[in-house]
Structure formats: C-alpha cells, structure tokens
Amino acid sequence: MKKALVFITVFCLIMTMFADTLAAASYSTAKPPLSIQILGKKVTPAPILYQDKVFLPLRAVGQALGYQVVYSEKIKTMDLMSKASNITVTVGYPYARVNGSSVKMEIAPVLSNESLYVPMSFVQANFKYDVKFDSNNNMVIISKPGTTNTPESTPPPSTTPPSTTPPSTTKPAASNAIMVLGKKVNNQEKALTKNNVVYIPLRLVGEGLGYKVTWSSKTSTMTMEKGASKVAVVAGKAAATVNKQTVKLDGTPYLYGGRLYAPLSMISKSFGYIVAYDSKSNSVTINRPEAPSKPEARPDLVNISNITYDDNSGFSQINITADRPITAFNNFTLTKPDRLVIDMSKAVLNLKAETVEIGNDGLDRVRTGKLAAEAVRIVVDMKTQKSYKIVQSEDKKTISIIYANIISPVTFGKEGDLDVVTVKGSTALDATDMKLENPERVVLDINRAVFDNLLQEISASSALLKGIRIGQYDTSTARVVLDIAPGTYYQVKKQGNTAKIYL
C-alpha cells in the first residue's frame, strides 16, 4: 500500500513537471526584436510598434535610399529631397506633402528616442521600393522593385496594444515588469505573447487599477467591478462584457499557471487607460490618460477658439480669434514646401477642428498644433509663397492674415521736368485713376490691395503738388490722393506691379 502511494505521488510530480515544461516551452518562444533591412543592409534605429502599426525611422530610410534629409527641430518637420521626389512630414500632423500633393497618413508621425517615425504603410505607398514585412524574422525589408521574395507583404497583428500617446512618452520598465499606475504589481507572473498578441494576468492588473475582482470556476468567468463599471471576461471566449455591452477582444483569454490571461489591448479599449509594451524587456506600463487642459482656469493663457477663412473682400483672409488679447506672437515663412508659420506663446487651443481646408487662391489649408505646454503653432500651407500682411483688431483678440496686393511706401521724385509719384505693389496693380474738383486732386484706387504702412509720412512739395495722402478706402481698396495746384495735368503709366503718376 505504501509503495503504491509513493509511486502515485512520484508519478503525479513527474507529470506536473512535464506539463509545466511543455507549457513554459510553448510560451517562451519569443521572436527577435523588430529590425529593418534596406537594400540588403541592416540599419538603425529599429522600427517601433505604435497603435497596432509598424512605424519606420524616416531619416534612416531616406538616407539609405539616397535622399537628402533635413529636419527642423523648431517646427518638427522633416524634408526628404532627391532628383525625382520631394517629401515633407511633420510630427503630429497626418498630412504629408509628396511632390507638391497632399497625402494623408493612417496615423500621424511620432517622435521616439529623438527619431521621427512614420507608418510603414506611408513608405509602402510613397517610396518607389518594395516594402515588406518578414514575420518569421520580425524584420521590415526594403528593396528595389521585384527583388524581394519575402512571403508576407503586410505587418502581422501588433504585439503592442493601442496607445494614445507616442512611444517616447513612456519610459520602459524593468525586465518582465508589469507597472500599473506607477506601481509594480507582478510577482512571478509576466506578460506572455501568443499568436503575436500580448497577454497579461488579468486579476493582478484589475486589482492594481482598483477593481474588485472575483472568479467563478464554475463558468470560468472573471468579473471586475468599480463604481458603475463592470467587466466580465470568460476563458476561451474572444469577447468580453463591458457594462452590459459585448466587446470583441484582439485574442482569446486563456488559463495558464492558475491565472486568467487576457489581451493587454482590452485595458485601453475597455478600461480607457494608456498602455505601452516594450518587447525588448517584455515590460508593460499602464497609466491613466492625461486630463484635458482647462484654459478657463488660467486667466494668463490666451484661448484660441476659432480660425476662419473668407474672400469677401476680394482677397484671401484668414482670421484667428481668441478669448482675450493676443500679445505674444511671431511669424515667419518656410520653403520646400511653402508655408507661413505663426507661433504664439502663453496660448492654448480650443478648436472644433485642428485643420481648416481652403483649396483657393493658392492656399491649401490651415493646420494647428501644440508647440509646447503653453505655446501654439499655426501653419498655413500653400502652393507657393504669397505676400501677406498681418493685422490685429482694435481689441487685439483677432489676428488677420491678409493675402492681398501689399502696397509699399509711396515715393515722390523727379524725372526731368516732371513731378513723379510712384506706387508699388507686391503683385501686378489693378488700379483706376480719376481727377476731382473743388479742390483739385488726383485719386488712384488699387483694387484688392492694402497698405503695408498707413502711418508713413511722404515728403512731397512742388509748384504742382501740395501733398500726398494715403488711406484704406474700404477693406479691399487702397487709395492714394494727390492734392494738386489748379490747372495741373496728370498722366498715369502702369507696368506690372508699379504705377507712376506724372504731373
């Protein structure tokens, strides 16, 4: 009897160890970290996984393919230039410029470890090379068309759960760590990868998030409750119940080592937390989403509330409106592609849309973004640079970018025996002239134009000319008035962007 009992005990121990060995072996097979090979050579930095997509380091890709690469840290924009192609992308902005055309990406570029990354799909669509994913080696391969025999051409399901923050915002935790709200919650357990999906021990994570967790062995169901929120997950069922609604999961929950493992992505999709996974260290980080900014609680911040476009004055005008005076801003232009940039400090955005599409008068769109914690950037994309003037409303709550014919300071001089008044614009002048009586004066009206400086003082005095006055006759007409002596004759000669009035 004792011998039989010893035999049974030893047999059970052997079977348990054998089962554990098999189970451990089945989950210990990890693929190599992501890498990239371009024209037969491995390059760095490596690709990253972000929001279920493979992202590629754009500078490394561009340089390996022979592009000249220029990055502006000031506006977070990268330009790639070659004889046949010009590409421009901006961090956080989903529209790129490819050979002068606007191209929308599936996800905006991000910064990670001081490198700019773009979705692999963008490189596939806009670079004239074969871009494929080798799932066996976890490698992106870029080669000349027709030279790659890799069986898979699209990336596999991501091992990184969706996240709403760029990868660079979360520092990787220690190896195999599961960090929940800043605390390490795992003991011996760690994240497991199965069929390219990351799984986490659900009870440990749920309790770390403050949920009451219960397990029913009868139905193989784990229930998590906190306040009005209730989530139920069943082993072997690829769907969860979240507040009485059925939610499809990215993988099937399963039991391992006496614990229920569920896809990590459900923590972001069903619980609303920010999750990140570092494949190199097999570490998981879960944090609360950042609370939205509340500009009304900061009276020292300018709240940009509206951006509009109109051409009712005969020229294009972009109006930027805030809830209080805009006092700190600067503007400059950039090329390749052409754009106007306005940076505002002590400002935040509160807009319904981050982009205002124009598609008129050579202007493509206005896009906005957060330059820093308390700074705003507004960019006007255009087909080619246009002369502009920035004016503010009397209360300084509105900045207007006016794309009109900008009139330079008016000058007076002599050409032989003739008095000459010269008017110059930034583009060809559309001007009409007339003579008025009582008192005698010559009037030159320039349509779709504004003066660069209305406060200029013009020194002009002769036997024929008493003085020169300028003013904005209406919002779209710049007017020049010459006060002349009785009996004075005049002639206007126009050529391109210049008009000369001879007396």
Description:
The protein has 503 residues and is mainly β. It has five helices and 46 strands. The strands form eleven sheets. It has a five-stranded antiparallel beta sheet, with helices on one face. A five-stranded antiparallel beta sheet has the order 18-19-20-21-22, covered by helices on one side. A five-stranded mixed beta sheet has the order 31-27-28-36-35, with no helix packed on it. The longest helix has 27 residues, at 2-28. The protein is elongated and about 110 Å long.
Question: What is the structure about, briefly put?
Answer:
It contains five helices and 46 strands. With 503 residues, it is mostly beta strands. Strands 5-6-7-8-9 form a five-stranded antiparallel β-sheet, covered by helices on one side. A five-stranded antiparallel β-sheet has the order 18-19-20-21-22, covered by helices on one side. Strands 31-27-28-36-35 form a five-stranded mixed β-sheet, with no helix packed on it.
Uncertain runs are 13-29, 150-172, 291-296
Number of strands: 46
Radius of gyration: 33 Å
Shape: elongated
Query: Going across the major beta sheet, what is the strand order?
Result: 5-6-7-8-9
Helix segment tally: 5
Helical content class:
10-25%
The N- and C-terminal alpha carbons lie at a distance of: 132 Å
Provide the descriptors you would attach to this structure in a database record:
mainly beta, 46 strands, 48% strand, 503 residues, five-stranded antiparallel β-sheet, 5 helices, single chain, elongated
